[in-house]
Amino acid sequence: xxxxxxxxxxxxxxxxxxxxxxxxxxxxxxxxxxxxxxxxxxxxxxxxxxxxxxxxxxxxxxxxxxxxxxxxxxxxxxxxxxxxxxxxxxxxxxxxxxxxxxxxxxxxxxxxxxxxxxxxxxxxxxxxxxxxxxxxxxxxxxxxxxxxxxxxxxxxxxxxxxxxxxxxxxxxxxxxxxxxxxxxxxxxxxxxxxxxxxxxxxxxxxxxxxxxxxxxxxxxxxxxxxxxxxxxxxxxxxxxxxxxxxxx
Length: 248
Prior knowledge:
5-stranded antiparallel β-sheet, 11 strands, 9 helices, single chain
């Protein structure tokens, strides 16, 4: 198991956003997290990537604790260990978060070179492979504003893949894409999973979830209401709330 989430809790100003969230993710597995707006899905993703602190519970990545709860206190990995763990976590944000003043190539090599000390030559060589895989070679010197939404999405994926993470997180990767581009993102996710990368996807697109996911978690009110295979979710769930959500 490459990711183990246990009893994660999170509140904002007394409002419970996550309540005892627990699940695991295996190598090469694709998991979709679905549910209505306000269910806590994005907060969960941000806690996994250490972009938010948790109020309780633990998260383990490849047998190393990102943080854990001991005797009511949250204990975080030290600076060096945190850096090593975060290298294993890739994140593609809903609005892509590309640096607008940098080219696609510069966006991709920024973190390997300036955060992790990879040589510029090595980072550029790896970026070239990623750009080729994502059919963006001709956009290496383009700036984000010169590209379409689908191209920016692929550039964001290339940047997240530059450190060769073992886990990739996507926040609504198809929200601004047409059906043809959505199919392209699905194919990329399948390719990454086929290479052994574990994928965690937040999505409102049920067709997309059905296409890519091995397992589906349904969240509501900060809790996991249902967890199972995609066949169990779409065809076999006897949970009335899940049925209503799918039908809507």
